[in-house]
Amino acid sequence: MVEKSLQATPEGKKAAQDALTGLGITQKLLSARKNISLSTVSKFFNCKPVDRILFVQICETLNLDWQAIAGTAQPENSPIEEIGTIVQSVRQEIRSSIQEQCGTMRVLDMTQPIGLSAIYTNVNILEKMTRQQTPKLSELIERCKDADFDRFGLADIQQKRVDGLEAVEQHNKLIVLGKPGAGKTTFLKRLAILCIDEAFQANRVPVFITLKAFAEAPGQPTLLEYLPQSFERYQNERSIEIATKLQTILEAGQALILLDGLDEVRDTDNQRVIREIQDFARQFHRNQFVMTCRIAAREYTFEQFTEVEVADFDDDQIRDFVAKWFNAKNDSVKSESFLAKLKNDDRIRELATNPLLLTLLCLVFGEAADFPTNRSELYEEGLDVLLKKWDAKRNIERDRVYRKLSLQRKEDLLSHLAYTFFERGEYFFKQRVVVDRIIQFIRNAPNISQDEADLELDGAAVLKSIEAQHGLLIERARNIYSFSHLTFQEYFAARQIKEQRTDALLSDVVSHVAEKRWREVFRLTVEMLPDASQLLQLMKGEVDQILAGDEKLQRFLVWVQEKSRSDEGYNKPVVTRSLYFAIDLVRIRDDRILQLIMPLSIIDDQLLDINLTLALSFTCDHDDRALNFALDSIRNPELKYQLQKLKEQLPDRSSENKENFKQWWKMNGQAWAEQLRQVMIQHCNIGHDWQFSEAQQEKLRQYYDANKLLVDCLNSDCYVNPEVRQEIEETLLLPISEIEKRENK
After folding, report:
1. How far is the first Cα of the chain from the last one, in angstroms, to the nearest whole number?
2. HEC states along 259-325?
3. What pLDDT, on the 0 to 100 scale, is given for residue 612?
4. Tell me, which fold does domain 83-119+160-310 have in CATH?
5. 324, 121 in Cβ contact below 8 A?
6. What fold characterizes domain 5-70?
7. For the whole model, what pTM was predicted?
8. What is the C-alpha separation between 650 and 425, in angstroms, rounded?
9. Residue that wins the pLDDT comparison between 623 and 476
10. How would you label 240-262 residue by residue, b for 16+ Cβ within 10 Å and e otherwise?
């Protein structure tokens, strides 16, 4: 049985007095330094019984072997069987407490806890911190050229991922850093459960400590004193007994110490807690330590600890989490539907890389079996979690300077940054540049010092707070920042347009209507605006100007209008115009026609036009299916006769005769295609060889995409004046001359 108290031998007393003199301190200073009462210190130096834990602390402070001072020194290697018995005894005693403390999770607006084991998804670790990597800004920019970069992680710097459990096994002391909602606490809880269930480090005793609770505990106990309190059921009657056993386990190096949330400790307690962790880890260095903290929360120095970073979820982890989530809800059908919709939506899939936001998406999808039509509301809900709920629900206080900004002003700041950089085509920005922008913004805020040196410090502090508290701006590489998700930069850029919406700003915004990277910003903006009529009118005017200065392209639009008039009465004129515009895009090998034709109600003559155009375009690829379809849909005998004659000119194209056909086409293909074109022009007024240049073809693509954006905006969850809506719809894809004629009526 381990003694509850110890006392120094006369020889031990002399050694302790010599050590005290050597350190140049008094008993009073020793008492203050270790927060031990002076009467206890006096008992120690008078060879009287002292609580075992306090006795060991005093000896450690004096750099003495407590067993030698107490005269209880045993052989260097204590019997393994004795330590093993104590470990198993404590594990058995604390099992239910660990299960209760770490076995469930409840976040956001969940109405009840959910079992951790039911939904836990393995965590991956980056062994090299993202912020410590040193690619140049130009290298990061190169990865996102033309806005076609991988949104899934914003062209993340690729590096090897290591399984979280493997990282713990490799490092005796580990500090796990991560963005808000990255799953740090969940990972630590999982370690505790695996350990107590003998699935991981079964020879150790898991101890889970929430550092915020430790820091605010009455009487400011040391970690050694607080350890028994972490097991709630032992806080009273058996705390001394469990403390004694834990001390023995710690000295034998048989504990798994899990310290959660260093960033959640208040500023007033911060230095004391850091010092206590450092001393404790040094004193009981043989044990396994894992500590969690947010990235950029504060500048910590733990020389004994190895820093690693929690990686974002990848596709496999997302699938695993979603399947487990809905299985736990007995609703596996929704899991399949969720993943199918996620696959086709890059922006929501991008948010799903964060476990907290993925949980939100599962909650939202679980209610309606779909994601909201109004995406701005979904993103707003996600931002609400990161900006307010996540810390507020856990009563966590953050940075002093940043707290001076109201929630509205924080959102205004993020909107200002998002639009400023997005408008310049910048997804990555140097720390110096973003700090300068923050200083400009906060300069006129209340209670902010106007001293330039103070402003410089405040600007840097605000940037770090945004990263640590919300994870909305993150350090992608050393001194290079970006928004955590491009979706959030797009959302805040749209919010800036909504909040400001001056004539000058709107004029600047619509100048980007043909740019692919701006599409989502336009869609979000029209959803956010109380009335999107003005913006949509400006967009329409800008779209019309894309082809306005090119006479040949205007003639093409006139032809589109004439063709649509010949089919009036079957579809809305704009639908028919869209059809013929898209049909001719096939001539420049553009697959937009397939996206547009499928949902349309097409009359026989239009179907014939489509098949003839495809025949002209694809016969040179040795595929005559479109020509056969055209023959099947013809009602005009003369046209059918001429097409049949053309078809008969084509040699057999079976696999055995493939080479002969290629040779025939090489010699005769151009003349044959020209005959087909003339037949199409004569009978159907299609197939004109417009001979568009590469630049004109690109303009046609931009014009088509910009018109499609307009239609998408009109069909979104937005308010538009009915007259404005009608005017825009009726003038889509019309030549400038026709639009001006309508305006002058």
Report:
1. 103
2. EECHHHCCHHHHHHHHHHHHHHHHHCCCCEEEEEEECCCCCCCCCCCEEEEECCCCHHHHHHHHHHH
3. 47
4. Rossmann fold (3.40.50)
5. yes
6. 434 Repressor (Amino-terminal Domain) (1.10.260)
7. 0.70
8. 52
9. 476
10. eebbbbbbbbbbbebbbbbbbbb
